[in-house]
Known about the structure:
3 helices; 4 strands; four-stranded antiparallel β-sheet
Amino acid sequence: MAVEPLSQKEIEDRLTDLPGWSLDGDRLTRAYRLDSHFAAASLVVHVARIQDELDHHSELTLGYHTVSLAVNTHSAGGSITDLDVELARRVEAVAPAHGAS
Length: 101
């Protein structure tokens, strides 16, 4: 997967396929609301597995009924790359199984 920074237009184009994700400064971000703390913790474990598989890690925050992510690529100078988008896509794919909205 490329670690070249994406242009602003490329980021905007990719975000159209990632509902709920947004650009916050130099990071892609998303917050999920879940029905319980257990469901939120379960999603965190699933996200951690995805991050290990990609060898790419976000800032991942577990709240009472929430999970928040913020990601960029440090090896690309803190820019957003396709690796960040892939992480977001994979998280987006598993989040509904945990009841996330």
